[in-house]
Amino acid sequence: MNDDRLIIFDTTLRDGEQSPGASMTKEEKIRIARALERMHVDVIEAGFPVASTGDFDAVRAVARSIKDSTVCGLSRALEKDIDRAGEALKEANSARIHTFIATSPIHMKMKLRMEPDQVVEQAVRAVKRARQYTDNIEFSAEDAGRSELDFLCRIVEQVIDAGATTINIPDTVGYNVPQQFGETIRNLIERVPNSDKAVFSVHCHNDLGLAVANSLSAVLNGARQVECTINGLGERAGNASLEEVVMTVKTRKDIFSCNVDHLDTREIVPTSKLVAGITGFAVQPNKAIVGANAFAHESGIHQDGVLKSRETYEIMSAEDVGWSANRMVLGKHSGRNAFRSRLKELGVEFASEDEVNDAFARFKDLADKKHEIFDEDLQALVTETGISAENEHIDLVAMRVCSETGETPHADVTLNVDGHEQQAEADGGGPVDAAFRAIEKVINSGAELLLYSVNNITSGTDAQGEVTVRMEKDGRIVNGQGADTDIVIASAKAYINALNKIVSPVEREHPQAADV
Ligand SMILES: CC(=O)SCCNC(=O)CCNC(=O)[C@H](O)C(C)(C)COP(=O)(O)OP(=O)(O)OC[C@H]1O[C@@H](n2cnc3c(N)ncnc32)[C@H](O)[C@@H]1OP(=O)(O)O
Ligand SMILES: CC(C)C(=O)C(=O)O
Ligand SMILES: [Mg+2]
């Protein structure tokens, strides 16, 4: 049965912003809020208005620009916080005030320094105050995950009586495990006499990596709102990730009795990219749903399965979450079927199985050497016949490159050509250009450079740089690769690697080079 809507409450702009280093400007919050609205997220928590004038302005600006989602502001259980939130949300089409107070013994005693009775009283007062601004009031029992159930039941009953319409049960420190957390939710709903007057919500943190699992367990036990963030951003290890919660409920309709059918899940990937770009928090490639590899297949057996029937290795479609398509990544684990299929897409047909096998063998050799294989590498691979880099009759012996502000870059190279050392110098538009020109003075290949690209194989300032050059001579196209921590040397190596394939020993003339 799938008869119930799961309310998606996004807190990227509030709890997400609590990730150290993820502060957002007003304009950035508006851009993210608009993306969330396009996704049809139900509630957008835009910030904590009392925190600063900047956050107040941001919440007010989001409230003014969002029409379809409810805009929410957070406040402690204090009059001044609630009044500030009420003021910031005044112009919202649909506003919610979210007020919270901690309910766990450790938080009440050590942090708030309050007796439980005082906490209940303050929570009730806060909810009543918030009702002066809107009927849409959420109350959170902070650190509910470590609170006593009897006390939780008591405070929840009283805040519902005071006018709270959503009761949020946070696992603030990510301490809970799925079965236990689900039971807490079920017990609360069963034991609180007026529980039918409010929506039960959960807000889970990822300290043990269980935020999504705990949220979903709560949903299976009656919660009908999940608080989550794009890319799982949030305080410390983050919050439950919106994309994982939403796509689990959508993909496992056989398990969940509620649905997220109102959401446009195709907005997930664009929104994830927007949040990553704004915060500078890159998404790890293997992150579920939004990671670059989430719909990529590299192994031959998987690629073969997906080519025959996509569902063999995909439980949802890449397009459904906003990727343009799934990806077949050709690498050293790939098999002939994927190789042949990609080349077919590139317009290359093989005349015989022998040709396929020959090209495939060269592809595997390349994949052993090269970090990532691009379509252009494949195109070059099928046009490279016979001559391989094993015929290395040209070698880089030494290179000196001068590049100074205000000076023309200059390169001095020494090559070993068929056992003879030859040296040449040249100026260039940049150090790489100067190096290529000096090499050409020795080899005089007459080949045209079609492409030059740099990738880093490792990261950091001492990264290995991998350079690919593509060259054409007399209609034959070859690729050359070179790797080095010095990018100019990597470039020279790549150029020489290509020359070794395109220039045969007899062809060479070296009129401008000096014998060393
Ligand atoms: C689990 C969560 O994510 S809760 C939200 C966390 N987010 C934030 O804290 C971000 C925004 N926070 C801020 O900008 C500031 O902390 C402010 C503006 C809210 C408060 O700043 P300050 O007045 O300087 O207080 P400070 O942050 O040092 O201490 C918090 C105070 O609030 C009290 N407090 C904490 N939670 C609550 C609550 N829910 N209701 C009432 N009082 C509370 C604390 O006991 C402490 O009181 P004390 O000063 O009497 O000891
Ligand atoms: C304010 C509340 C909902 C919170 O962020 C938490 O308890 O983690
Ligand atoms: Mg939180």
From TrEMBL:
Pyruvate carboxyltransferase domain boundaries: 6-266
HAMAP family per UniProt: LeuA_type1
Residues the record lists as binding Mn(2+): D15, H203, H205, N239
Region ranges (Regulatory domain): 395-516
GO CC terms: cytosol
Entry's EC annotation: 2.3.3.13
Keyword Lyase annotated: no
GO biological process entries: L-leucine biosynthetic process
Name of this protein: 2-isopropylmalate synthase
Role this protein plays: Catalyzes the condensation of the acetyl group of acetyl-CoA with 3-methyl-2-oxobutanoate (2-ketoisovalerate) to form 3-carboxy-3-hydroxy-4-methylpentanoate (2-isopropylmalate).
Keywords assigned: Amino-acid biosynthesis, Branched-chain amino acid biosynthesis, Cytoplasm, Leucine biosynthesis, Manganese, Metal-binding, Transferase
Gene (name only): leuA
Organism: Thiohalophilus thiocyanatoxydans
Chemical reaction(s) catalysed: 3-methyl-2-oxobutanoate + acetyl-CoA + H2O = (2S)-2-isopropylmalate + CoA + H(+)
Assembly mode: Homodimer.
Pathway field: Amino-acid biosynthesis; L-leucine biosynthesis; L-leucine from 3-methyl-2-oxobutanoate: step 1/4
Cofactor or coenzyme needed: Mn(2+)
